[in-house]
Batch of 2 targets.
Target 1
Amino acid sequence: MTLIDRAATPAPHTARGVLTGVGHLGQTSPPVPPGGRLASLARRMWAYWLGCAGFALILATTTGLGPHRVWGACAAVGYGTAAVFAVRNSPRRAAWAALLGAVLVPLAVLVVSGEAQSEVGVVERSGALLLHSGSPYLPHPVHTVDYDPYLPGMALFGVPRALFGNGPLTDARVWFCLTFLACMGVAAGFGRRHRRSDGVLSLAAFPAVALPLAVGGVDLPVVALMCLGLALAGRGGSGTAAGVAMGAAAALKWTAWPLLPVGLVLLAITAGRRTALRAGVAALSVAVMAVVPVALADPHAFVEHVVLFPLGEGGVRSPATSPLPGRLLAEYAPDGAVLATGGLVVAAVGVAVSLLIRPPRTVRAAADRLAVGLGLAICLIPATRFGYLVLPLVLAGWFRYPTETGGASSAEVVDLAECPAPKRPESRHGLSGGRA
């Protein structure tokens, strides 16, 4: 009996081969060349850091906001130092210099000086109100700063100051920053061979993220929990942990609620309907326990603060007036607010239909779908601002961060790890058609 001599064909890379460096039938995958994607990025990082320094310097010299001016001055020095380290081929030192100058130093300066965005004061006041009255919302808001447009979970960031008084460690910004870094660090940890610290450092030092981290942006802990929920959903398991993370995000702000359908569809496709159902129960339980008791404590205040005010229909006009399409429609078109709200509903229905017709099968696809939905919502809501775009920006960029596996993103590595290796083809004699 003779075997037919077959032409050698390139061995397909299985999921196991991608993760371990071993290809089909035990063949070693070719090593990543030293001039690969990461090396190419490292060589160009000096220009990136220099551009960030230019942006920070322009902001410092043109803005009328004190906290932003402090950030711009500190960040310009940090980014400039990072560019020098990048020229010297020290990417890790460059990232640390950028983080130090763009986040840690301005955050410390602003905390000590007491300068902050108005959101910080709103959250800290809400924490005190929650402890004393059971509701974080003022019953009769008069001025813009009297409004708290966030869901009750956000008030927890103000509880440390209400309990322990003024101090650097009780500032709500510190807890925003710690929550963001911790959640993104845990999310990064689910990628095999992923350089967790590099990804978190690069993201935190990015100007659109570093600025709100230092001055007190409330959207960063929200998007960090969203990324954590998607990373846990991509990991599979029982689904409970993913549901808790998604529910925690939904308890902070309305903008996190689109995560629930996207994350649950991802779980249903990759881990099964029971897992998705378990995650959905966990998510809704966390969100309901955080929101419903507070809403029942003062229904009128809840609706005024977190429903009417964000839509631009409250007793006081919302300061979120960036010239995005929804705002322009509400401002200049007849019945513009109705048109903008209608467009928002149409966009939501479109994303929902896309989940049914073509459900996401990977974490990256789910993050992209969520980023598109949030981007449309932010552009169409009548009371909006450019700063909200950090949500889709982080979602779209985080799961594309290159890793040690030759340029694959952390999401790709997680997805491959969960996929079973394809079966080896057999010949009619029961022997593998590949090379033994």
Target 2
Amino acid sequence: MELAYIPSPSTGVIHLGPIPLRGYAFCIIIGVFVAVWLGNRRWVARGGKPGTVADIAVWAVPFGLVGGRLYHVITDYQLYFGEGRSWVDAFKIWEGGLGIWGAIALGAVGAWIGCRLRGIPLPAWADALAPGIALAQAFGRWGNWFNQELYGRATDLPWAVKISEGPNRVAGTYHPTFLYESLWCIGVAALVIWADRRFKLGHGRAFALYVAAYCVGRSWIEYMRVDEAHHILGLRLNVWTSIVVFVLAVVYLVLSAKLRPGREEIVEPDRGPAAGDAKTPTDAADADAKDADAEAKDKAGDKPGDKAPSLVKAEDAPKDTEPKDAGRAEAESAPGTASETASEAKKV
């Protein structure tokens, strides 16, 4: 007897006139906005400028969507290129099918491009965005609920999700693996925020912690799922992916802590004139004064055998001779010494 269960939506799309509003897309969009909002708060708290996270997200999000779809199509190619299948369905992203591994990998490429354009380090930006990405996944997983997909084994637990009859699915109550992963991602976000405050994680370690923690949960949740997937040595492909990525994330955590301890002091350097892009008025005036001083010295004594009288020492001049008086008269009639010329240049 089914005493309690989570009902599934009768449809995953609502039509507003000719415009279809799809629940799966809404979940992804909400997740992106939450990630950018939280990432911006964390970035500003680290000393960054407001709006930088959103500017880089403009690069990261499209790359991430393409990467997520590519990973899904490649690992589940039989759904689109098998017998009786249409390859055109590979472009129907609204029907579900985004692989987080591909989304993170290619999204990182887009983020790297955005960071290079802004002149900021990618690891610092990734640290700020890490818990937001986990929350974005938490919201995005509810898109599977709208599409009635990616559920687990049959169960009669009170929180089982009720699936209706449809293509490639049998009516019944199943483990709501989308709900398990959504709750796990919320826990991962909380863990990263706590650890970052407690240990002052930097140089990409907050992001690595998010990756490692997510992989732990994804391993056992993936093991519960019953949808079609490739198996290697008795384990689903995504389970093996979780294990490999977990090991890489832990190795990065350990090596990064040894090689680059602490946290970045400056995450977004000022790119204005003070950073060296242009000279300040004071610097320009000093440079002009130095040039004038050098020019005056050149005029005064750089020519061989024609030293300025004002720069000739008294003992060097011939004693009791007429040229001495002539030189003294010439010095008195000169418009100014080299030092006076430089002083006038500085005043200008």
